[in-house]
Amino acid sequence: MLKVPLLPGACARVEHHLSRRLFLQGAGAGALGGFGRLFAADHAGAATKQGKHVILVFMSGGPSQFETWDPKTGRPTGGPHMNIQTAVPGFRIDEYMPNLARLANRTATIRSMTSDLGDHMEGHYLAQTGHKPTSVSATAPHWLSVCAHERPAAGGLPSYVVLGAEQGGNMAVPGPGFLGAGHQGLYCPGKGQGPEDLPAAGEKELDAFRRREALRSGLGAEFGRGRGVPAVGSHDAAFGAVGRLLASRDLFDITKEPPKRVEQYGPTALGRDCLLAARLVEKGVPFVRVQHQTGLAWDKHRRAFDSQRNLTHEFDTAVGALIDDLTGRGLWDTTLVVLMGEFGRTPGIEGQGPPGRNHWTKSWSMSLGGCGAKPGVVVGSTNDDGTAVKDRPVTIPDLFATFYALLGIDPAKELDFEGRPMPLTENGKGKPVKEVL
Amino acid sequence: MRALVLAVSAALLVPPSAGAGDARDLGKAVDAKIVAALQKEGVKPAPRAEHAELVRRIYLDVLGRIPTADEASAYLEDDRADKHHRLIDELLAGAEMPAYWRGVFHHWLNGNLDEKRPGEDEFLAYLQTRLGENAAWDKMAREMLDPDETDPVGKGASYFLASRLIGGDRSAQLDAMTVAVSSTFFGVQMQCAKCHDHPTVDKWKQENYYGIAAFFARTATGRAKSGSGTALTEKPDGEVKFTGRKTGETTARLLFLDGTVSEAKDGRRKALIAAGVNAGSPYFKRAMANRVWKHLTGVGLVEPVDQIHDANPASHPEVLDLLAADFATSKFDLRRLMGGILHSEAYLRSSRWVGPGARPADRTYAVAAPKPLSPPQLALSLAYATGYAEALRARYQGGDKNKPGGAVTPGLLRTRFEKERDYATLAARFKQEGEGFQANASHALFLTYNPVIHTMLKPGAGALVTRLAKAKDDEAAHLAYLAVLSRPPTADEAAEVANYLAAPGVAREESCRDLVWALLAGSEFRFNH
Q1: Which segment, A18-27, A183-192, A334-343, B303-312, is predicted with the most confidence on average?
Q2: What is the Cα–Cα distance from A19 to A182, expressed in whole angstroms?
Q3: Min Cα separation B359/chain A (Å)
Q4: Which residue range forms the structural domain that includes residue B237?
Q5: Band (A90; pLDDT cuts 50, 70, 90)
Q6: Would you say residue B324 lies in a domain?
Q7: Closest residue to A169, CB basis, from B303, B352, B434
Q8: Does residue A31 lie within any of the structural domains?
Q9: Which of A171, A235, B178, B365 would be B439's cystine partner, CB 3.0–4.6 Å?
């Protein structure tokens, strides 16, 4: 069902690549000597604990603002859900989010998001790169790839880990784009699992891998000459990543976590991944993307209101536990947690058959917190029926500028791609949401 | 070489037609247009790829696997100047081709289905038979849109629509049929137009999406008249209604993409065939021409392949027009279309760019794009390279007590292997979703540690690892390179290999295994270049 409507411009082949020469210098300098640096991961935690982290929980499908952070109970557009009081006076959210209601004085909520791409895949792309697929001159990187580029992990830990993915390839979960394969998120299949096929930890495996990898990259060097395209670069970079993973094998092992900690997150795939995200952050991985279910779970065109309860409940349980856990471990002040999908849903209760809501980009909500984001603020509002933003519209470029500002990355910064300046947000238009800073 | 050619010729399903030369002419016509565009840009294209690169590329693109060491040697030793053209014609006409291409077509037609559905095996058999007969593409399209339940082969085609009628509610089923048909047969993707007029294509209104849907409004499944299973039916009534932003609730007309409104005297799907499946309609011929071009060169003339519309022009509109027109006038001869592309210098170019200047974009076709092996190509190539194919062949040959095995042809080897769990595991991991290839660590982990790879690298009769372990150091490099990379090693490579094998402290068999792995896990193997 999922097709990827990549529009012209987005599919322009990017001839930029991880320079092979650079890669070889880094990974293989002095025969195996280069591995020494890459494998010395044990001290990584200490170095990055001072740094900042991001956990993005992506709610694919387009969560309804009416059934999450902007209820209009009792209005014609309100739907059957009730709302509850949060820890912030006067701020009420959906009845199935008791944990997020309790934690509302630690998080910030934006009720006046506005965007303009109502197709799932285009929306995914925009909401994770800050660029429209039609308007980029080179494939835009995921914003967490940008973060990995700007604030890489110390000591050979992965800078960016992807836990589960929505179907739809590079549109649903955009890759590193023009930044090249070196800034690609390390994929884990979800449900709390680490990367597939990692062998048991041990010096023996590590030695054997080093020996084979030296042979592999040595024999392959000639092929790469004159074929320095991103695809080929990404293949070789992937083997470099394997070597680093072998050296930090228990990083992904949530069975090492005490049962009590596991329970708090709830018995769901999302719970496992949120726990793994917290573990990774605690161990020094700076950036983690968590996928909430696959198959566009929040895309409730039909039979929305009943099934929404279960979805919202598991989301609230897992994300609530994540916030509590990060706070309890002293990581909340350095970890930005972002909860959002690609757009919102129509005020009108539409659809054929059992009712639901369709895609809506004009006015929607998201939540963020930690890493110095001002706690308890509610930014912007929609009108009584939620059909339009009433005040303080926030665009996706604004939102991205806010993320970068919270992470201490200058939102006005431009990256370089083959001598061309590449702004972090579309046309460099984004202005941080000051209310959150 | 002679023996090889004879073996291939004996298995010819489709005699090289009198038009084989014409396919080469088609290639030349394509080249003239590509070169003209390059001259305008002042770009001198890369030279033709080397022999060893071409034999590997042609086998991968036509048969979906690397050549065996013997096949590669035979080609490399052949000194005829037109040997690549001959190889293209031979492989295209041979019996193994449809066993690979049925999977390619299945992927194009049904790749977006998330799981195998009842009738898939019959559909694959249908595709293989028709591709083996070199059936015209318009005939196949008609069979898929309006299957003849009395034709024992043709009825397998009903899977294409019937698979979209399993599960989901009616509107989801209708959507699945509409999207599949417009994407594969007509090269357009109209999901945007479902909810509103298309944002970038002025002439596509919401009405166009529902217009295609209307042709399927009455399509359902019923019990087959003969035999078991289900058959496609068309109910006597049923309309598609939609709510336009301005127009309110509207009953969709039978509206084709070019604006034709049909009456459905003989049934709605027959009306769609009449409107769209013919040489006159630009959509039908362009869609397949562009897909085949993309499959063989790596980059579509229009990208994405199902966004062929005014707001998304082709990189070389004149090439697309030429291929589409030739495809139609050749009565939708798929092999001729493939041959025209394969014989072109644009296809045969080197993938290496040594200058001058920066590497030109893939879509200029100045230099070949390295193509990552698709999951089917990768699985079979791994099996052939490691010698695991021999183990499979022996197993399939054995048959069982009641059913003694017959000759295991390469085509049969493929279709049997495709049913193995190991194959499915590998295919799932390397599945590419969406556009743009990127390897990730999970690919590298698979190639290094997954049990499927361990199985393939196991010593045994026919296993490359075992043959290497018995060979002398200087022969081992040659054997390994020819089996895995379809070429002999350079002197430097041979020396590096000998050096590795001679190093103390590692058992001979293990170091041979390391060598095979190192070549399999290299970019040169991972890509079709």
Answers
A1: A334-343
A2: 10
A3: 7
A4: 112-276
A5: very high
A6: yes
A7: B434
A8: no
A9: A235
Of B183, B429, B493, the CB nearest to A219: B493
Q: Quick check: is A246 in a domain? A: no
Residue B386 and residue B519 in one domain: yes
- Among residues 286-315 of chain A, which lie with CB inside 8 Å of chain B? 302
Q: Chain A: give the shortest CA distance to residue B446, in Å.
A: 6
* B162 shares a domain with B116: yes
Q: Is residue B53 part of a domain?
A: yes
Helix, strand, coil shares of chain A, percent, nearest 5, are 40, 15, 45
**Pairwise CA distance, residues B330 & B292, whole Å:** 15
C-alpha to C-alpha distance for A341 and A357, rounded to whole angstroms: 15
Chain B environment of A3 (Cβ under 8 Å): 112, 179, 183, 189, 191, 306
Structural domain count of chain A? 1
Do the Cβ atoms of A7 and B200 come within 8 Å? yes
- Round to whole Å and give the CA distance between B192 and A253: 42
Q: Which domain covers residue A119, as residue numbers?
A: 51-194+253-436
Q: Would residue A4 count as lying in a domain? A: no
Q: Which residues of chain B have pLDDT under 50?
A: 1-10, 16, 18-21, 434
Q: Two tokens at B362?
A: 């893939």
Distance from CA of A369 to the nearest CA of B (A): 30
ipTM value of the model? 0.90
Rounded to whole angstroms, how far apart are CA atoms A215 and A250?
27
Same domain? For B378 and B520 the reply is yes
C-beta of residue A267 within 8 angstroms of C-beta of residue A217: no
Give the pLDDT score at B250: 87
Whether residue A232 has pLDDT greater than 70: yes
Residues A317 and A265: their CA atoms lie apart, in Å, by: 6
Nearest CA in chain B to A116: B199
- Grouping H, G, I as helix, E, B as strand and the rest as coil, residue A421 is strand
Is the residue at A19 inside a domain? no
CA triple B320-B324-B328, angle to 5 deg? 175
Residue A167 confidence class, pLDDT cut points 50, 70, 90: confident
pTM above 0.80, yes or no: no
Q: How confident is the model over B513-529, as pLDDT tens digits? A: 999 999 999 999 999 99
Cβ-based contacts under 8 A for chains A and B: 201
Summarize pLDDT for B475-487 with one digit per residue, the tens: 999 999 999 999 9
Please tell me the distance from the alpha carbon of residue B363 to that of residue A9, in angstroms, as a whole number: 12
The answer on B31 and B53 residing in a single domain is: yes
What domain count does chain B have? 3
Q: Say yes or no for a CB contact (<8 Å) between B527 and A232.
A: yes
Cα–Cα dist A92/B155, whole Å: 59
Structure tokens given for A173: 């979960």
Question: Which residues on chain A are in Cβ contact (under 8 Å) with B361?
Answer: 12-13, 15
The residues pairing with B372 across neighbouring beta strands, listed in sequence order, are B527
Q: Determine whether the interchain pair B195/A359 forms a contact, defined as Cβ–Cβ distance below 8 Å.
A: yes
Q: State percent of chain B over pLDDT 90.
A: 69
* A359 contacts in chain B (CB < 8 Å): 195
**Could you tell me what percent of chain B has a pLDDT over 70?**
88
- Note whether B251 and B333 are same-domain residues: no
In the block, residue with structure tokens 């070889």: A24
Closest chain A residue to B198, measured at CA: A119
Going by pLDDT thresholds of 50, 70 and 90, the confidence category of residue A245 is confident
**Using an 8 Å Cβ cutoff, are A427 and A395 in contact?**
no
CATH number at residue A358: 3.40.720.10
R_g of chain A, CA atoms, integer Å: 22
Answer whether A219 sits within 8 Å of B362, measured CB to CB.
no
Instruction: Give the number of other Cβ atoms within 10 Å of residue B102's Cβ.
Output: 24
- Kindly state whether residue B190 falls inside one of the protein's structural domains: yes
Same domain, B205 and B61: no
- Whether residue A195 and residue B445 make contact (CB cut-off 8 A), yes or no, is yes
